[in-house]
Design goal:
The protein is elongated. The longest helix has 32 residues. The chain has a domain of 135 residues. The protein is built from 5 helices and 6 strands, in the order H-H-E-E-E-E-E-E-H-H-H. Strand 1 and strand 2 form a beta hairpin. By secondary structure, the protein is mostly helical. The strands form 3 sheets. A two-stranded antiparallel sheet has the order 1-2. A two-stranded antiparallel ribbon has the order 3-4. Belongs to the DHHC palmitoyltransferase family. This is Palmitoyltransferase.
Length: 213
Amino acid sequence: MGLRIHFVVDPHGWCCMGLIVFVWLYNFFLIPKIVLFPHYEEGHIPGILIIIFYGIAMFCLVALVRASITDPGRLPENPKIPHGEREFWELCNKCNLMRPKRSHHCSRCGHCVRRMDHHCPWINNCVGEDNHWLFLQLCFYTELLTCYALMFSFCHYYYFLPLKKRNLDLFVVRHELAIMRLAAFMGITMLVGITGLFYTQLIGIITGTVEFV
C-alpha cells in the first residue's frame, strides 16, 4: 500500500511536535557525549552499545516523520461508493460529505478520516486507518529509546566505573549533573506518557475497539 503525503497546518501541533524533536535532539547528542563515548574510550562498554543507541534513535525519528506526514485515511470530497456498500455510508453533519461508518470528522484537520482513533498533537496528525500502524511503531521505538537512555543514565552514576579522563573545560562536563537530571526528567515523563498511551492502544486492539490495519 502506497503511503500518501499529508500535512496539517496547525501551529499548536507544530509546537508540540517541535517539543518532541527538541527532546530527541537533546538526548541524541548529550547521552553519547556525557555517557557513551567517555565510557567506551575507557573500555567500560563495548562499541556495539553505541551503535544500538544511534540505531534506535534513528528508527524513532523516522517513525515520527512517517506518522506525521502520512495520510491517516482522509476521505476525498467526492468518494466513489461501491454499490453494495451504500447502506454502510452516512452523511457527515459537519462537512456534508458521505463517509463510511466508523469514520469521524476531525475539527482540527477539517475533514473526515476513515476509522479515526484520535487527533494526536504530538505528531500533528490524525491517527486513522492508514497510519495507525505507524503510530504504534512510533510508540514502540520511543519507549525503547527512553528505556535505553534511562538505563545508561542510571549505570553512569551507580554501576560503571568512575571516569578517569574528564575535560572540565567543556560546558557539558562542568554542568553534567544538571544536564543529566533534565534528561532523566524528560525521559521519565516520556516513559510514563508513552506507556499509558501504548497500553490503551494495545487494549483497544485486543478488545476490538481499535482496529489495527
